[in-house]
Design brief:
heterodimer, A: about 425 residues, nine-stranded mixed beta sheet, 9 strands, B: alpha/beta, Rossmann fold, eight-stranded mixed beta sheet
Chain lengths: ~425, ~350
């Protein structure tokens, strides 16, 4: 699916990729593109960066979903105001601790359960400090947005590289964590054992509890048991939502977009993600190579120029110095001019060589993907995206930089 | 640009190395390598793994026995050193360097095996599906098991009773990961009574907090956002005093080689425009963009240096040395590039600037 089709028709876009490639900004730009196409769009980001809030024209970005003031776009560079086409853009950052608390508030069956969960130290550690928590809560936010938000499209930004696919595993992990059998090991009263197998399991539970106490100390074990006990009452809801999110993630209106730069280390990480996605049979719909070429010709800034015409720098400079600026001191300035012109040429040749190397990296990453996967190359911008017009320009580049997968060989990458 | 960018000394020599920061730096040159643990962190994509590998190669060149530990399954060291596999057991990756990768699942197995009285029982538990699921789902378990693996590596000795690995360079992946490691004691403080797990965490937290044994190195880029995040991380760690700082590496500092010639570049651009020389004009316009990027990078390095100085004064600590590393443009870094980078990172290379 092309990016244009994806923001125009998809219902969920999940952006995965290594860190430092501008994934969050790309996610926001895709959301903006969808809003401009007339859709009610939500961007769920994980990046607490102040800069993104600024780029969206928001005072801040937190757990609360806010409306992005797109009307400011129309005051800018003559861009159309998307709200006139019925589109709107909304954004929130997934704040793990705050989202968990809000979740418990919502799903706890009664006040007492709610208080016990919020005070439980295992819950506090799980919800705030430790790495896998994010995926659980992102999943819950996603569920809520899709089932109750009324959005046409949700764009989900994921944590960098190695944690990116936790979102796919989290529902399964959670479901098994709250699996009745596990809970019953630690809470003998949860399910009364009946039959030989169950009695053996209960026996195994005693052994396991004893061993865990030995390893973790009794305090932690007591808290874990308390945590499981209160969560057991809510587990049906958890498991139902986890299953629903798994379905949504596997739905054919869900698209995965791999975002990478063309640097060798990012591409290595991206290749790992690509293989992991393929292994899980999750289709990759598009690969965005952000900042993946240096615009080397101001006459054609969006083009990859992979070969430079030969230049006789010396003749160029002599001609220019003599004919165009006779006021220059010929002896001194011609020498400096020549030196500078040669260095300038070397810089541009280096940029061209870099584009060629980037091209090979891009080809290598895309080669393993099915032919319907689109690739998009975005040039390295001189300015970081700082405001809505900047984000709009990136959105334009994303939709314009699209190249269908060439049928054979890397040569069609050339302009 | 090739010769300039690969020439480490060249870029360093031309760069505004903050002399004051060096003067108050707690560690200079190869002193840094005397520590038991060198931790590396920074935002994704800043070249942390490359800097880590380069320092490991330099340590080996000095006759030490460095071990690079990467966390999780990123397999970056595999591609940096060009070997087929880096797994849970340290292996030689060439140039006198060993490397390993700590996978959480394996670390949990190891941890259980150490703390359960019989090996047979340990295997039975680890092989038990229900318990295995519990461990996969429990968020703290992976982190604690990783700390346990680092503890075991630290304790390894050679035939003569000296540490088997020296230094141990830990590639901590993203910034959040580093904080989680350094703050693990706080996280579990109210959670755990006395027991082997608590003892392990306390022991490792003490080791990390001891500036004689552990240093945290930050890797960043000369751009606004990475510099801001580096300063935020520095402030947070400096106030928690959970670890001493080593160096702050600014990677990929651009260099145009045209500073001081801005007027001539502009003159040539105008002349080319008037004379209709499109090629020369394109050369000049690209050169102006590179010059602008270089100026911005210098501004960010200055902001970083000033910020570190101010925050260190606030926290009462020494100012970490800021080291500028050049932008390497090779598609795959060659060994000699890594060696140069390692020497530059330790500041033990004479500047070769022309």
């Amino acid at each position: 699916m092309s990016l244009t089709a994806l923001v125009g028709r998809g219902s969920l876009v999940v952006c995965v990729g290594p860190g430092g490639v501008g994934k969050t900004t790309v996610s926001a730009a895709l959301g903006l593109a969808a809003a401009r196409a007339g859709r009610k769009t939500l961007v769920l980001t994980i990046d607490p960066a102040r800069r993104l809030a600024d780029a969206l024209g928001l005072d801040g970005l937190d757990d609360t979903i806010r409306r992005v003031p797109l009307e400011r776009l129309s005051q800018g560079e003559g861009e159309g105001d998307p709200s006139s086409s019925g589109g709107s853009l909304w954004a929130a950052m997934v704040d793990t601790g705050a989202s968990y608390d809000a979740l418990i508030e919502r799903i706890a069956p009664d006040e007492e359960t709610k208080a016990r969960v919020l005070a439980n130290r295992v819950y506090q550690a799980v919800s705030r400090s430790l790495s896998r928590s994010h995926a659980y809560v992102a999943m819950e936010r996603l569920y809520d947005a899709i089932e109750h938000g009324g959005y046409d499209l949700v764009v989900l930004d994921t944590p960098p590289a190695r944690n990116a696919l936790d979102i796919l595993d989290a529902p399964g992990h959670l479901a098994s964590f709250l699996d009745g059998r596990v809970v019953s090991w630690f809470i003998p009263s949860a399910d009364k054992p009946s039959g030989l197998g169950a009695r053996l399991l209960a026996k195994g539970g005693e052994v396991a509890t004893g061993l865990l106490a030995r390893v973790t100390g009794q305090t932690l074990l007591d808290e874990i048991i308390a945590f499981l006990t209160v969560f057991a009452s809510m587990r049906e809801g958890f498991i139902a939502r986890a299953q629903r999110v798994q379905e949504i993630l596997r739905d054919r209106d869900t698209a995965f977009v791999l975002v990478s730069s063309a640097s060798p280390s990012s591409a290595d990480d991206a290749a790992w993600l690509r293989d992991d996605l393929l292994r899980r049979r999750v289709p990759v719909h598009a690969v965005v190579f952000n900042q993946s070429f240096v615009p080397v010709d101001p006459r054609a800034p969006h083009q990859l120029v992979l070969r430079l015409p030969p230049a006789d720098v010396e003749a160029q400079v002599r001609a220019l110095v003599r004919t165009l600026d006779p006021a220059l001191d010929p002896a001194l300035d011609e020498a400096e001019g020549l030196q500078v012109a040669q260095r300038m040429r070397a810089l541009r040749e280096e940029a061209v060589a870099e584009n060629q190397r980037f091209g090979r990296i891009v080809d290598g990453l895309v080669a393993e993907l099915p032919s319907e996967c689109h690739r998009v190359r975005v040039p390295r911008l001189d300015d970081e995206v700082r405001d809505l017009p900047g984000l709009a320009r990136l959105a334009d580049l994303l939709l314009a930089g699209e190249q269908p997968r060439p049928p054979a060989g890397p040569s069609s990458d050339r302009p | 640009m090739g010769s300039v960018c690969v020439s480490v000394g060249g870029a360093l020599g031309n760069a505004p190395v903050p002399a004051a920061a060096h003067a108050t730096s707690p560690t200079t040159g190869s002193e840094l390598l005397d520590h038991r643990f060198l931790l590396f962190t920074g935002k994704g994509g800043v070249g942390k793994s490359t800097v880590t590998a380069a320092l490991a190669i330099e340590a080996a060149t000095q006759g030490r026995s460095p071990l690079v530990v990467e966390l999780g399954h990123r397999a970056t060291m595999r591609s940096v050193f060009g070997v087929d596999e880096v797994g849970f057991t340290p292996r030689a990756v060439g140039h006198g360097v060993h490397a390993m990768s700590v996978e959480i699942d394996q670390a949990v197995v190891e941890y259980m095996a150490q703390h359960v009285p019989s090996r047979r029982l340990a295997r039975a538990i680890v092989g038990n599906q229900v318990l295995e699921r519990l461990f996969r789902a429990m968020p703290a378990v992976g982190e604690i098991a990783t700390v346990n693996a680092l503890h075991r590596l630290e304790a390894e000795r050679d035939g003569r009773g000296r540490p088997r690995w020296s230094p141990i360079l830990v590639d901590l992946d993203a910034t959040g990961h580093a904080l989680m490691f350094l703050e693990l004691r706080e996280v579990v403080r109210h959670l755990m009574g006395a027991g082997p797990m608590r003892r392990l965490i306390d022991e490792m937290a003490d080791l990390f907090a001891d500036p004689q044994r552990t240093r945290l190195n930050l890797v960043t880029l000369p751009d606004e956002l990475p510099v801001t995040e580096t300063l935020e991380l520095h402030a947070r760690v400096a106030s928690a005093r959970s670890v001493g700082f080593g160096r702050v590496f600014v990677n990929r500092v651009p260099r145009s080689g045209l500073r001081g010639h801005e007027a001539m570049v502009e003159r040539l651009r105008q002349a080319a425009q008037q004379g209709g020389d499109a090629e020369l004009r394109a050369d000049a316009e690209l050169a102006q963009r590179v010059l602008a990027a270089e100026t911005e990078a210098r501004r960010q390095v200055e902001r970083l240096t000033q910020g570190l100085r101010r925050q260190s004064a606030d926290g009462g600590g020494a100012v970490p040395a800021v080291v500028l590393l050049p932008r390497l443009t090779a598609a795959r870094m060659q060994l000699e590039d890594l060696r140069r980078l390692g020497r530059a990172a330790l500041g033990s290379t004479p500047t070769e600037d022309a």
